[in-house]
From TrEMBL:
<dbReference type="GO" id="GO:0046872">
    <property type="term" value="F:metal ion binding"/>
</dbReference>
<dbReference type="GO" id="GO:0016787">
    <property type="term" value="F:hydrolase activity"/>
</dbReference>
<dbReference type="InterPro" id="IPR036866">
    <property type="entry name" value="RibonucZ/Hydroxyglut_hydro"/>
</dbReference>
<dbReference type="InterPro" id="IPR051453">
    <property type="entry name" value="MBL_Glyoxalase_II"/>
</dbReference>
<keyword id="KW-0479">Metal-binding</keyword>
<comment type="function">
    <text>Counteracts the endogenous Pycsar antiviral defense system. Phosphodiesterase that enables metal-dependent hydrolysis of host cyclic nucleotide Pycsar defense signals such as cCMP and cUMP.</text>
</comment>
<keyword id="KW-0378">Hydrolase</keyword>
<keyword id="KW-0862">Zinc</keyword>
<feature type="compositionally biased region" description="Basic and acidic residues">
    <location>
        <begin position="198"/>
        <end position="208"/>
    </location>
</feature>
<feature type="region of interest" description="Disordered">
    <location>
        <begin position="189"/>
        <end position="208"/>
    </location>
</feature>
<dbReference type="InterPro" id="IPR001279">
    <property type="entry name" value="Metallo-B-lactamas"/>
</dbReference>
<dbReference type="Pfam" id="PF00753">
    <property type="entry name" value="Lactamase_B"/>
</dbReference>
<feature type="domain" description="Metallo-beta-lactamase">
    <location>
        <begin position="13"/>
        <end position="191"/>
    </location>
</feature>
<protein>
    <submittedName>
        <fullName>MBL fold metallo-hydrolase</fullName>
    </submittedName>
</protein>
Length: 208
């Protein structure tokens, strides 16, 4: 059975997720905000098949360079943000010098698109383009797990006042791409605690 573990990393306590296959031999890392020791220990002895990025803001990508070099694994990012990894201005790290040094790394190895299906750790990862927090934001649906990045939080949503953000676009993404999922789908956000689609459809004050 597929398992996952959450790690709240860095100054903004950004959630990184390690998704591990049933026989505990391989893993996928989603949004490694830092190369934190606890995260790295979790990966000991595992084959890292890929790094999946829900978007390329600095607090979600700080560990990408270290992990990619250590494990030789490909990085996946939506095409709308394909050059953000190489640009500290676009990924925001140059803007918040009091929080992070400038972050740059190589371009993604593969670009994501809406509706794309990826197979890792013996499971299908369905890519849902959910822009609004940023132009290339995506969510990954794996069975009844939704890795939502900074689109949907428990009783909240991602901020839309950063470059490329749009409140209207984010609301559409949530209503059309996420609220259409079954109630029991577990939402694993980029910050804060988990929730479910059903709970947010009923209780989220920002998008009804």
């Amino acid at each position: 059975m597929l398992t996952f573990q959450r790690f709240a990393l860095g100054a903004l306590q950004t959630n990184a997720y390690v998704v591990v296959n049933a026989d505990r031999t391989s893993a996928v890392v989603i949004d490694p905000g830092t190369a934190d020791g606890a995260l790295m220990r979790k990966l000991d002895g595992l084959k890292v098949e890929a790094i999946l990025l829900t978007h390329a803001h600095f607090d979600h990508i700080g560990g990408v360079d270290h992990l990619r070099r250590k494990y030789g694994c490909p990085v996946y990012l939506h095409s709308a943000e394909k050059d953000w990894l190489t640009d500290a201005g676009k990924n925001g790290s140059a803007r918040w010098a009091d929080v992070t040094p400038p972050i740059t790394t190589d371009l993604p190895d593969h670009e994501l698109a809406d509706g794309q299906e990826l197979t890792f750790v013996g499971e299908t990862f369905l890519v849902k383009h959910t822009p609004g927090h940023s132009p290339g934001s995506v969510s990954f649906l794996v069975g009844d797990l939704l890795f939502a990045g900074d689109a949907l939080f428990r009783r909240s949503i991602g901020r839309t006042d950063l470059p490329g953000g749009s409140q209207d676009q984010l609301s559409r993404s949530i209503r059309e791409k996420l609220y259409s999922l079954p109630d029991e789908v577990l939402v694993l956000p980029g910050h804060g605690p988990e929730t479910t689609i059903g709970e947010e459809r009923r209780e989220n004050p920002y998008v009804r």
